Amino acid sequence: MVFKNVTDLMKRHTALFVILLISQIFALLSIFFVFGVFQNNLYELCDNHDSKSLEATIDNQKITSDDINKIFMTMVEEEIPIDYFYVEAESKDGKKSFLDRAQYKNGKYGYSDSVYENMKYGLQGSYYEDKDYRNKNKVVVINGEDKKDVGDTIVLGEETFDIIGKDDINDPGEYEIPFTAFPKNCVWIRLNFGLTQLPTRAQYETFRDLLLSYGCKPAEFYVSNNADLRQEYSMLVVSALLAILAGVNMYMIYRFIFKKRRKKLAVFFIMWLQQETCPDVIFY
Questions:
Q1: Quick one: CA torsion of 24, 28, 34, 36, rounded to 10 degrees?
Q2: Which of 128, 90, 96 is nearest to 110 (CA)?
Q3: Which of 89, 223, 238, 256 could form a disulfide with 201 if both were Cys (CB 3.0 to 4.6 A apart)?
Q4: What per-residue confidence (pLDDT) applies to 284?
């Protein structure tokens, strides 16, 4: 019945059928195109705004733990929303890594609370405290696979450290140490500020200028301004409007078809009902 209705439309209104067919093709292509544009802009928007960290590599090997501390405290004083401060170095032979995830809250140094929540379950012993940072105490948290135990000592970078904890998070050869107490002959690698919210352009520029002044190399970071945001959201709105228009176009076309052929469709429907109720009756 449907096929017969379509063929009848083709025969009786060929020009109209061709126009409707072309309109439908364009409407479908528009919807697919708009969907692609919408997805792309949505991805760009998310990709550019989901990073809550500022990173830098440390190229200046004359830098000291005191310099690292000055960088940390300067960022704190700038009231940048810091969650934790990650710093990494390694031994001269590259076989050992020295890590720290520090925070500074209420005037005290400490191991990051947010990181600790994820690492505490595999911890034996404890992490270091404010006094360990301030006094540059040689304390370390080692990997759980290490044969040494809490209370033993270990030599790192020709310096002796007291083992105060073991965890199952870090890999073998990685050692958690207060950054102020890293071995003096270590090779500094990188630092990272984990933030509680997305940084502004001004905050990134403060970070960038500060790190450059110490001979470090800040990572490129995209911080969008209001113009960027307006452009991205405008594209999303335009895409949505085009999709709505394409949908309305399809609706209007089918509405026109059914309106023009309402009587014939009613006849087809009645014939179908009669054939369902009286299958032996033949209609001519």
A1: -160
A2: 128
A3: 223
A4: 46
3-class state of residue 107 by DSSP: coil
C-alpha to C-alpha distance for 229 and 222, rounded to whole angstroms: 12
pLDDT given at position 202? 85
Rg value, the chain, Cα: 34
| Structure-derived torsion over alpha carbons of residues 174, 177, 179, 183, reported in degrees to the nearest 10 | -80
Q: Which candidate, 231, 11, 15, 176, places its Cα nearest to that of 3? A: 11
Residue reference for tokens 């083992």: 163
pLDDT at position 131 over 90: yes
- Provide φ and ψ at 96, rounded to 5°: -125, 140
Could you report the per-residue pLDDT of 224-268, keeping only the tens digit for each?
544 455 565 666 677 677 777 777 777 777 677 667 666 666 666
**Cα gap 271→252, rounded to integer Å:** 27
Query: Left, alpha or beta for 260 (phi > 0: left; psi -120 to 50: alpha)?
Result: alpha
- pTM value is 0.61
